Amino acid sequence: MSLRVADGIVDPDHAHGVVDSDHARLHELGYKQELKRDLSMISNFAISFSIVSVLTGLNGLMGTGLNFGGPISYIYGWPIAGTFTMLIGLSMAEICSSYPTSGGLYYWSAKLAGPNWGPFASWITGWFNIVGQWALTTSIDFSLAQLVQVMILLSTGGLNGGGYMISKYIVMALHGVFLLIHAILNSLPISMLSFLGQIGAACNFFGCFLMIVIPAVATERASPEFVFTNFNTENQDGINNYFYIFVLGLLMSQYTLTGYDASAYMSEETKDADKNGPQGIVSAIGIAVIAGWAYVLGITFAVRDIPNLLSENNDSGGHAIAQIYYEAFMSRYGSGVGAVICLGIAGLAVFFAGMSSLTSNSRIAYAFSRDGAMPFSSQLQKVNKQDVPINAVWMSALVAFCMALTVKLNNRSSHSTLTRHNRLELVKLKKKVQVVEVCL
Question: For residue 242, what pLDDT is reported?
Answer without folding.
Answer: 94
